[in-house]
Design goal:
single chain; four-stranded mixed β-sheet; 3 helices; 4 strands
Length: about 140
């Protein structure tokens, strides 16, 4: 058996550490997410015209009054990606949970959208900054 000398020991430790870091950690229980283009942390302060019209229908149906844009587009693996613009600046769960449920219920009821496979939801404030982000895929 070869004995390691002191100068070789740090190099061996570094090589083992790099090997561990490069191997990565995975869990068989963790669901695999498809790689997709990263979602933005900021957006325009104005919602596109179609998003404004959908938000108007949402508000008329009893939705949260400070929502001024709702946009739906295909996300990764066909899961809907929802973007909501609102005037409020609250980013806490107390205001987000009712908003989320209200928007999802509206889209299911009014547009017949099936969100059974989950959805991605980003909520932006009137300053264009991300307030909330949710990945609701199963």
């Amino acid at each position: 058996m070869t004995r390691l000398t002191r100068p070789a020991l740090p190099g061996c430790v570094a090589a083992v550490a790099v090997a561990v870091l490069l191997s990565g950690c995975t869990s068989d229980d963790a669901p695999e997410r498809s790689s997709s283009v990263p979602r933005p942390l900021t957006t325009s302060t104005t919602a596109p015209g179609a998003a404004e019209r959908l938000a108007e229908r949402y508000r008329q149906a009893g939705g949260v009054e400070d929502v001024y844009g709702i946009e739906q587009s295909p996300g990764p693996d066909g899961v809907p990606q929802l973007v909501v613009w609102r005037h409020g600046r609250d980013d806490d769960a107390e205001s987000f949970d009712p908003l989320k449920q209200s928007v999802v219920d509206f889209l299911r009821r009014e547009d017949g959208d099936s969100l059974d496979q989950g959805y991605l939801l980003d909520v932006f404030g009137s300053d264009g900054k991300l307030l909330n982000r949710l990945d609701a895929r199963p």
